[in-house]
Design goal:
single chain, 202 residues, alpha+beta, three-stranded antiparallel sheet, 5 helices
Length: 202
C-alpha cells in the first residue's frame, strides 16, 4: 500500500511518495473505492498522535499500604487528591502519568491528553496513553514516543507494578527451576526432541 505524500495526480494515476522515499502508483478510483489516511490534518494542526498501551501484570495490581502511600507522597509520585478513595497502585500510576503528560514540554497542551485502563485481556491489563506530540516529523516523533515509554517502563516498579510477560520469562517463586527433559516415545538415541520446559524440585 501507499503511506506518504501525493506528488502527482493525473487522469490515470496518482503517485505517492512513501516515507521511505519509494514511489507508489495507484489508480485514481482507489481513492474512492478504498479507505485511505490523510496526513494533512496532522501537518496543519502541528501535533501528531500517540495512542499506545502498556500491558500490566494483573497480579501486581493491589491496594497500597500506608507505608507505600507515604513513600509515594514523599517522592512526588502521588498527590493528596489521589488518596481520597481506596488507594490502588494502578490508579495512582494513572494519575501520575496524567500529570506527567500535562507538564511535558514535548506534548501539545491544547489537544486531548488521556490515560485510561482498557478491558483486561489474557495478556495483561492495558493502560493506554493518548496524547499529541509537538513533533510531527517521523524521526523526532518516534524518538519522543520511545523516550516516553522508556520512562513509563522504568517508573512502574516504583508503584509496585510490572509489565506483563509470559510465565516462562519469570523466575518461579516456589524454589523450583526449569529444566529440559526429552519427550517420551523417542526410540532413536541419536535424536533428542524436547517437549518444552517443566518444573522439578531443586
Amino acid at each position: 500500500g501507499a503511506d506518504g505524500y501525493v506528488t502527482e495526480v493525473s487522469l490515470t494515476t496518482v503517485k505517492v511518495q512513501n516515507f521511505d522515499k519509494t514511489i507508489t502508483t495507484i489508480p485514481p478510483y482507489a481513492l474512492v473505492s478504498d479507505s485511505f489516511q490523510n496526513w494533512r490534518g496532522m501537518r496543519e494542526c502541528g501535533g501528531r498522535r500517540i495512542k499506545r498501551s502498556v500491558l500490566l501484570d494483573a497480579s501486581t495490581v493491589r491496594f497500597c499500604t500506608p507505608e507505600e502511600t507515604e513513600r509515594l507522597l514523599k517522592e512526588g509520585l502521588a498527590q493528596k487528591e489521589d488518596l481520597s478513595e481506596d488507594v490502588v497502585n494502578m490508579r495512582i500510576f494513572r494519575s501520575y502519568m496524567q500529570r506527567y503528560l500535562k507538564s511535558n514540554p514535548g506534548i501539545r497542551p491544547d489537544l486531548l491528553q488521556m490515560v485510561r485502563t482498557l478491558q483486561p485481556t489474557s495478556e495483561g491489563i492495558p493502560v493506554e496513553i493518548y496524547c499529541f506530540t509537538k513533533a510531527t516529523d517521523w524521526i523526532p516523533y518516534e524518538t519522543f514516543q520511545s523516550a516516553l515509554f522508556d520512562h513509563i517502563i522504568a517508573i512502574l516498579p516504583r508503584f509496585g507494578l510490572r509489565i506483563y510477560q509470559r510465565p516462562a520469562g519469570l523466575p518461579e517463586k516456589s524454589g523450583r527451576k526449569s529444566v529440559m527433559r526429552p519427550c517420551r516415545g523417542n526410540n532413536n538415541p541419536a535424536i533428542i526432541w524436547y517437549s518444552g520446559f517443566i518444573s522439578v524440585p531443586l
